[in-house]
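BUG: 3D viewer hangs when loading the predicted structure for this chain

Environment: internal workstation, default settings.
Expected: structure renders.
Actual: progress bar stalls at 90%.

Input used:
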Amino acid sequence: MASIRMIVMPTASESFSMQALYWHEPPKVHKRPKMVTCGCCSFFGRRASLGGTDKDNKEILFDEKFGKSSTFVTSTLREEGGVAASSSREALLKEAIHVISCELGWIYGSITEDILTGFKLHSRGWRTIYCMPKRSAFRGSVLINLSDRLNQTLRWALGSVEIFFSRHNSICYGCKEGKLRFLERFAYINTTIYPFTSIPLLVYCLLPAICLLTDKFIMYELSTYSGILLVALFMSFLASGILELRWSGVSIEEWWRNEQFWVIGGISSHLFVDIQGILKIVAGIDTSFIVTSKAFDDEDFKQQLYTFKWTTLLIPPTTVLIINLVGVVAGITDAINTGYQAIRPLMGKLFFVFWVISHLYPFLKGLMGRQNRTPTIVIIWSVLLASVFSLI
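Structure tokens produced before the viewer hung:
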């Protein structure tokens, strides 16, 4: 325990007791608290003794290590963030220099400063343990509106891409010191490159529809040996997933809901991040974000749940959904015109198409919500893109 410098505890998401559509279902509580906070917890290991110093000197050392900025503390309590407009530039500069000169604290320079801070701490040889108590150490409210949720995912993914293209790239940073363990480095590499999986994911979501529109199948005939290898690979993947679910205490329903949002976010937010991240790193084009508020009353739950706010992030999943639905209609129509011999290959093609649609079902359910109309511009762009893709 002497080498352990930090204990990591998860933050339990809590917003409403209804069934969540766009991520995992939060813990069920009888009454939502009026104020919900979130954070991370770090317990630092034992340092060298300060023997001989008096109480005043200890307080001075404590301030030098952790900082004592009343302006910074006040800014964390503001819902919209930032500092008061009455603050002078000279005072803010002085406070900023004081905050960044402290020994302990966040490492800034990235949208996802929590990932960057943890990565640099581990690169310096810090060791952590994971603690998941039965009673949640922290609780944080989550966004229930799809547009806000996608924008939040966009910010997180862009922060990971920024780290990947920076000098803190987890592939090579800290290799000379050798303090970062292999599995730790592997985990951080996965944390920074996951937005790039949106490109193959988008291809996989479109391939089943292409098969129906072009009357070609996605898979070739497999030999017995290749079939055995494919089944073995699938079973190993399934077994590792089951073990991970048992270890983390996540139910099958929560896992499936997370998989659905991974696909929705992958073909929307992550796809935009791949473009915006490269533009920001290469051309220096910065991206401005609108910080979404998570504070809402109980009466706004159902209203916020199906509210569709205009964002370009809605266009890619809507387009993919329309293309797959058009592919289903085209495939069934072609099978009816061809005859009985086309039914068997059609079943395999429909299986992959409905597998994609099942992942996009929460998004489809939001589109079909009666409380609010889907923005017209989203439908227009999606139909145009789907039509062009179908003609090609």
